[in-house]
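Batch job 17 of 40 flagged for manual review because the log was empty.
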Amino acid sequence: MSDDARMIALLDIGNTHTHIGLADSRRVLRQTDVLTGQWRAGTARSAAARFLKKAPLTGAILCSVVPAVTPVVEEFLRAEFRLACLELTARTVRGVGIDYPRPKTIGPDRLANAVAVNHHYGAPSVVVDFGTAVTFDVVDAAGNYIGGIIAPGLNVMTDYLHEKTALLPRIRIREVSAVVGKNTRQAMLIGAVKGYRGLIRELVGELKRAMRCPSLPVVATGGYARLMSSKLPEITAVEPLLTLEGLRLVWEAGARVK
C-alpha cells in the first residue's frame, strides 16, 4: 500500500468534545466532533464508526485529557477496526523536545500542538488553543516544549456567570461592536469577547518580552480561534486542525523510525 493510500484515524479526546480526524501521510483530510461524555452511552461510538468507516484504516493515534474515556476509545478501535492505538504522551512524542520539570503532567493535546507549531512555524513559537480552557503552549528557540499558560475558556467564564447569578442569562458567544452594553446580554458579550482579546493580547506581549522575540509566531486553534483572532494582529495564523495535525506528525515520525 502506498503512503498516500494509508489512512490514519486521529482522536483528540477533550473535556467537552472528541475531535476525530482522518489523515493520509501528507495532511488531515477531514474532521468531525462527538461529545466526549457520550462514549460510554454509545452515541459517540456509533457516530465515530460512521465517520471512520468512510476510509480503510491502517493505524490510529489519540491524545486524551479524560483518562476514564481513553480505554473506552481504545476498545472501540480494536472492536470496530482491529486497530491497536498509539497514545501520545511525553514518552511517545516525536517532533519536539521537552524541557519541563514533570513531563508526565503535560496535557498530551498540548504536546500535539507543540509538535505541529514547531514543524510548520519553527522555533520559537506559541499556540493559543481556545478550548474548554484557553491554553498557551510555548516552544523555545531550541525546539523544546517549555510550558505555558492556562486560563478559563470563554464558555466556562460565561456559563459560570449564568450559573452563579440569579439575573445573568446564558449567552451565545459572537462578535460585538458596542463598547458600552445597553442590555445584559450585550454587556456580557463585551466583557467576554473584547475582554478576552485584552487577556490574549497582554499574555502574548508578556511572552514576546520574556522570550526576547518581537516577531514570535503565535498560532490560534480551537473552537473560538477564528472569532477571537479576527481583531488580534498578535495572532500570526489560525489553524483549526492544529492538534490533529500534531497527532498526524507524531504518527508519521514513528512510522519513519520503524
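Reviewer: the log was empty due to a logging misconfiguration, but the result itself is present. The mean pLDDT is 92. Unflagging and moving on to job 18.
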